[in-house]
Q: What sequence folds into this?
């Protein structure tokens, strides 16, 4: 089974296979929406370059289950940018060098 990212009730669900290599023990993420790309960018708060390039908002990675899946409550980003809130699987790309997840929304 490959790792996946889904949108459910205004939360982004991240499979545990994505959490460990990117976030490790970090419990907060920076998130920003880039309108030109139509993508939500997610990275650990340890990524100082991200703060310089974007004006991100900090979110708590909430535990969902014992497997280690996590969620991010992104309702304000969806509303502020008038994005589709329909529950669905989301396509994504991982940039390992910078611990960045690019999610198509």
A:
């Amino acid at each position: 089974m490959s790792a996946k990212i889904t949108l459910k009730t205004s939360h982004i669900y991240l499979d545990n296979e994505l959490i460990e290599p990117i976030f490790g023990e970090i419990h907060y993420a920076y998130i920003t929406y880039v309108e030109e790309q139509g993508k939500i960018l997610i990275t650990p708060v340890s990524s100082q370059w991200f703060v310089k390039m974007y004006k991100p908002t900090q979110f708590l990675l909430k535990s969902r289950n014992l497997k280690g899946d996590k969620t991010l409550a992104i309702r304000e980003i969806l509303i502020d940018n008038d994005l589709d809130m329909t529950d669905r699987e989301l396509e994504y790309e991982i940039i390992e060098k910078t611990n960045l997840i690019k999610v198509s929304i």
